[in-house]
Amino acid sequence: MINWRIYPLSIADQQRHIEQCEKLLSTIQPGDRPIIYWSLADPMGLVLGFSQKQNILNPAALASLNMPIYHRRAGGTAVLVGPHLLDLDVILPPDHPLVQADIVESYRWLGNTWVAALRHLGVESRTVSPAEAHDQQALCKQSETSAYEQLMNRACYGSLSPYEVVVGRRKVVGLCMIRRRSGTLLQAGLVLHWETTQLAQLLGRTDEEQYSLATGLLERAVGLDTLLGRVITYEEVINTFENYVGLRQGHMGRDKPLPLRGPI
Prior knowledge:
Elements: E1 5-12, H1 14-27, E2 35-41, E3 45-48, H2 59-65, E4 69-71, E5 79-81, E6 85-92, H3 108-121, E7 126-127, H4 130-138, H5 146-152, E8 165-167, E9 170-180, E10 183-191, H6 197-203, H7 207-220, H8 224-228, H9 234-248
Parallel strand pairs: 1-2, 3-4
Antiparallel strand pairs: 2-6, 3-5, 6-10, 7-8, 8-9, 9-10
């Protein structure tokens, strides 16, 4: 029986999480167990996508908020990390059956597992189809919607990608990926609480852009606490997701919830 290698929840500086996942990805070997790594960032910070430059940020807000800036190796756009966002990294060896030749389809199982886990927690959600994501991204090229969509796309949770998890059209789980010869790293961010003021201040260059981001991003994403009408614990989410990995991939996962352990 092949089991997941599950790391306990780690609460640390985001740079430590980035470096740990890089190490896990670079050292995983064919035949190794797939890895689950849970994390929360402390202190709060802003993570930019691989192609984003720090000069996109509002310098006055950056100085006022005194927020650390990080860069990830995956694509996509800016994500505010902290206690409001539970991160999951899944590292797969190159010969693992969940690694597919079609990069887009490689997200499907992870999105579907989150949908099943959220249903167990009391939230009905769905994955975004590739066609729906394409249609939403096409709005960036239409003259009447281009400026607004490009503004929203400065933030990861302002746009949709295939197999991300939404309630209605508001994103709850964002996804991204790093694929190398050594293996594949799938990253998921579950929004526990969604508040857009600081993100809008950092990404908006003018007062008008900040207002549009603060209000528009509320329509693009939603926190699990809002959906459930209560604050949810990390333990509930982690145990439920790991349980559903076992149910959906029975030959690779555990079939009982796991207790929450301390930081690595």
